[in-house]
Design a protein that fits this description.
Elements lengths: L1 H4 L2 H30 L4 H26 L4 H21 L4 H13 L4 H13 L4 H30 L3 H18 L8 H7 L1
Helix pairs in contact: 2-3, 2-7, 2-8, 3-5, 3-6, 4-5, 4-6, 4-8
Length: about 200
Amino acid sequence: VAEASVHRGFIYLTAGFFVCGWQVGFIMDHLPAYILDANLPASVAAWALGLIGFFNIIGTYGCGWLGDRYSRKYLLSLLYLVRAIVVAIFLVAAKTEASVLIFSAAIGLLWLGTVPLTSSLVAQIFGVQYLTTLFGIVFLSHQVGSFLGIWLGGWMFDATGSYTLFWIGSIAFGVGAAIIHMPITDAPVPRLQRQAA
């Protein structure tokens, strides 16, 4: 923990996972109400959540597969950036059944692809011996982000009567997460390099 707490990459991964929790918590909890506010039937909200779950299976598996072949930190940057773009397009698009379902499928592909990439990057940098402890800390950040995304999303809606500012904030957070993952040093820490030698 002491080693990780001063490693810039670990701090960035923890911050990025906070953003992931913020976004997915907000969407999962508030998307149905957002859809109903757009005067679409409740069945569309149900289909939206179902599509997110279904495409999450494909996206998470795909991200794990890609993470075995390409740079995990750059894949994470790309995932957060594409997630921000998908949200931005959805925010400005007309709210129709088709646009909601397309958004749900797209965001589902990006939903928890962060998990295999983030956890394997923690293992790559710090080794598997302390993976459960270190990824547990990173995951706690995700849960805090999720709580705040849900609670503050509701608070902002109550205060303004709209989710628009929160959607915009989620886009900005996504771009920020994309940026902070790029400079992560993903080489194993010196302790592991010495063990390998």
